[in-house]
Amino acid sequence: MLEDSYAHIKNMDINRITLRFSDKLKEKEFVKYYFQNSYKATRTSFLLIFLLYSVFGYLDYITTSEYLNLFWGIRFFVVDPLLLSVFLLSFTRIFEKIWQSLIFFTYLLAALGIIIMMVILPQDFIYSNGLLLIFFAGFVFIKLRFLLGTIAGLTSLALYNIIAIFYGNIDYNSLFINDFFFVSA
User: Fold this and answer.
1) Claim to verify: residue 137 and residue 62 sit in the same structural domain
2) How many structural domains does the chain have?
3) DSSP string for residues in 34-89
4) Domain that includes residue 22, residue range
5) Helix axes of 39-55 and 80-89: crossing angle, nearest 10 degrees
6) Are residues 72 and 147 in the same domain?
7) Residue-wise pLDDT tens digits, 4-36
8) Mean pLDDT over all residues of the chain?
9) Contact predicate 113/79, CB 8 Å
10) Cβ pair 122, 170 in contact under 8 A
């Protein structure tokens, strides 16, 4: 009985990897529908993410004094302006054409900001939680489509490992523990 209720899903002709419709017209219609039903949530999410990313600057203040200027530079002069720009661009007509690429890039930049902080302060697991929040926001709040969200998540994970191994002062056990949680998320 349960199988009968999902029979229509089997007939949808969706690529199982990209989760895109094989029929280009159907895919185009879905993309338009998805945007129309997502842009307000994406807009609101970017405003909230901007506020949260900013408020986490207080953690920078209480956890590090040596790197405070660097962390605040990343947070307030690189990532926050981009988050706010995406929010403002969401009110323009061009946003519909670029929104997935733009939020993909923003996801990666926000993740890179957290990764740099994590690698600089490897003994402090607080910042690894920040990357978990980025993963969660990418798939749930900002409405990044499955393939781009997966690529962004895997790219962030790869960047973290590359930067941590070659430039960080992190022991391999901590790296493994962080990776375990990131992959699980």
Assistant:
1) yes
2) 2
3) HHHTTHHHHHHHHHHHHHHHHHTHHHHHHH-STTHHHHHIIIIIIIHHHHHHHHHH
4) 1-37
5) 160
6) yes
7) 556 665 667 877 778 788 878 888 898 899 999
8) 88
9) yes
10) yes
